[in-house]
Design goal:
With 188 residues, this protein is of the alpha+beta class. The chain has helices at 9-19, 52-59, 134-139, 141-148; strands at residues 36-39, 47-49, 71-73, 79-81, 89-90, 99-104, 106-111, 114-120, 129-131, 153-155, 161-163, 171-172, 181-186. Strands 7, 8, 9, 10, 11, 12 and 13 form a 7-stranded mixed sheet that branches.
């Protein structure tokens, strides 16, 4: 099978400018991200869809890292094609797609040899983790709350919550509010 090299007009422009001695630099937040391909229209706990910018910067020079013939959901109802269509993006794609491109949305940290995770964007824990119990959170509230987010509030075990530093690291045994993050500990 013959391989035909193809260069998009934007890549050609960038290559010619760089070769001609003009440097283009991307904004600080523009960078390739770690990603995974997941079945269905959503991401598992601890992951969030790639944004359009994430997808652009991740695949601008590495389109071949996606499965060849797929179409993949990204954030905001958008999609991105696989290499068969040069990783072209589509805004407001209403089709039901089989796969979603997701990036990690959690932070792991260690306290006394135990691995904890703050999971952003939901109250669920990562696979292999469970919500931290009230007693543990109370005992280590000063260390844990620094990972919650300055003005954040996160779900803990038993339906409780812990506040971030901005709220004074308060811990509640019960909290009926819907919260956006979770504090979890590695399951034994």
């Amino acid at each position: 099978m013959k391989h035909i090299s193809h260069m998009t007009p934007m890549r050609a422009l960038i290559c010619s400018l760089v070769a001609g001695g003009i440097s283009l630099s991307a904004p600080a937040e523009a960078q390739a991200v770690e990603f995974g391909v997941y079945e269905g229209e959503g991401c598992p706990a601890g992951y969030t869809p790639l944004t359009a910018l994430d997808a652009f910067w991740t695949f601008v020079a590495r389109c071949d890292e996606l499965p060849y013939s797929g179409v993949f959901r990204i954030a905001g109802g958008s999609s991105i094609d696989g290499p068969w269509n040069n990783c072209q993006q589509h805004a407001d794609d209403t089709r039901e797609l089989e796969y979603t491109l997701c990036k990690p949305n959690y932070e792991l940290f260690d306290i006394g040899g135990t691995t904890f995770a703050v999971v952003r964007g939901g109250e669920q824990c990562l696979e292999g983790f469970e919500h931290v119990d009230f007693a543990t959170v109370s005992a280590y509230s000063e260390e844990i709350c620094t990972h919650v987010g300055y003005w954040g509030i996160a779900r803990i075990g038993g339906g409780g919550s812990i506040d971030g530093v901005g709220y004074g690291c308060g811990v509640r045994a019960t909290d009926s509010r819907e919260l956006g993050d979770a504090i979890c500990v590695e399951s034994e």
